[in-house]
Amino acid sequence: RSTVSLSLLAELKTQGKPIVMVTAYDYATARVADRAGVDMVLVGDSAAQVVLGRRSTVDITVDEMLILAAAARRGVESAFLVGDLPFGSTEMSDGQAVATATRFVKEAGVDAVKLEGGWPERLSRIRAIVGAGIPVIGHVGLTPQTAVALGGMRAQGRSPEAAARLAREAIAVQAAGASALVIEAVPRAVVDVLLPAMCIPVIGIGAGAADGQVLVMHDLLGITEGVMPRFVKTYAEVGTAMVRGVEAYAADVRSGTFPQKENDYSASAGAVAAAHD
Ligand code: KIV
Ligand code: NA
């Protein structure tokens, strides 16, 4: 269990203090997030691409997510830990959704689960999981698991009809019992209008100011290769630093510069003589 609680997150919203959330997928990245003092850590299904190198976020199983989430749990002491319910693990029934969310709590020790979507079937899943005593973080706007049905990975809520539908979904997710809501790739002006109707913390990604922000760690650290979505800001060039580090090691090995005396173990003269015999 983390020291950051749902009530602390609610307090941050009330005080107008922005909530900081970042993804992590294993012990090492979870330690980075926790040492940096973020409020929330998300083990996102973005792991499918970021960690496993697959093409789509839907291409990850519950068992795989649980290995990553359990590893992140071991690294997080302070931040509130959220596990992303992957595509296919909640769609069939409320019972399936509760069973999956329960595994995330029991096997990975997450503090809450995140569930995409705000249409009627999804609201039913949120009510069921919350009813089982597991906090739920909603996710509306661009929902990558169903992006094909949304017309691709593109911003949502840009037309008057779409903005109204998005606002209805956000409010319905809150009414269904969600403890917080992620809003992805939605115009800032639409979120500004929605915010006064939201009592729960709203965490934006490409959605303007909201009550907090979430980014993929590998994107903000400059580890992810290629063109970033416009909502990403890169704060470090860690990918380049890692390549330079491994290059320097390789060069040292190839030139005989590494290892040196300080990297060697000492032996008694007798050991050397015995090895010689
Ligand atoms: O999987 C993920 O990383 C996410 C965040 C970007 C919100 O869902
Ligand atoms: Na996700």
Kindly describe this structure.
With 277 residues, the protein is an alpha/beta fold. The chain folds into two domains: 6-236, Alpha-Beta Barrel (TIM Barrel), CATH 3.20.20.60; 241-276, no CATH class. It has eleven helices and eight strands. The chain has helices spanning 6-14, 27-35, 47-50, 62-75, 94-108, 120-131, 160-175, 188-194, 217-220, 238-255, 269-276, and strands at 19-23, 40-43, 80-84, 112-116, 136-141, 180-184, 202-205, 212-215. An eight-stranded parallel barrel has the order 1-2-3-4-5-6-7-8, surrounded by six helices. β1, α2 (27-35) and β2 (40-43) form a beta-alpha-beta unit. α2 packs across α4 (62-75), α4 packs parallel to α5 (94-108) and α5 crosses α6 (120-131). The chain starts with 5 loop residues before the first helix and ends with a helix. 43% of the residues are buried. The model has no long low-confidence stretch (mean pLDDT 96). The structure holds 3-methyl-2-oxobutanoic acid and sodium ion.
Short description:
With 277 residues, the protein is an alpha/beta fold.
Please give a handful of descriptors for the protein shown.
binds sodium ion; elongated; TIM Barrel; 42% helix; eight-stranded parallel β-barrel; alpha/beta; 277 residues; binds 3-methyl-2-oxobutanoic acid; 2 domains
The small molecules bound here are: 3-methyl-2-oxobutanoic acid, sodium ion
| Rg on CA atoms, Å | 22 Å
CATH class of the largest domain: Alpha Beta
Number of helices: 11
Helix content: 40-55%
Order of helices and strands: HEHEHHEHEHEHEHEEHHH
Structural class comes to alpha/beta
Can you tell me the overall shape? elongated
Could you describe the largest sheet, including whether it forms a barrel? 8 strands, parallel, barrel
Residue-averaged pLDDT: 96
Task: Quickly count the domains.
Answer: 2
Report how far apart the termini are.
58 Å
Percent of sequence in beta strands: 5-15%
**What's the CATH topology name of the largest domain?**
TIM Barrel
Total number of strands: 8
Q: Which stretches of 5+ consecutive residues score pLDDT under 50?
A: none
Which CATH architecture of the largest domain?
Alpha-Beta Barrel
Strand order of the largest sheet: 1-2-3-4-5-6-7-8
The name of the CATH superfamily of the largest domain reads Phosphoenolpyruvate-binding domains
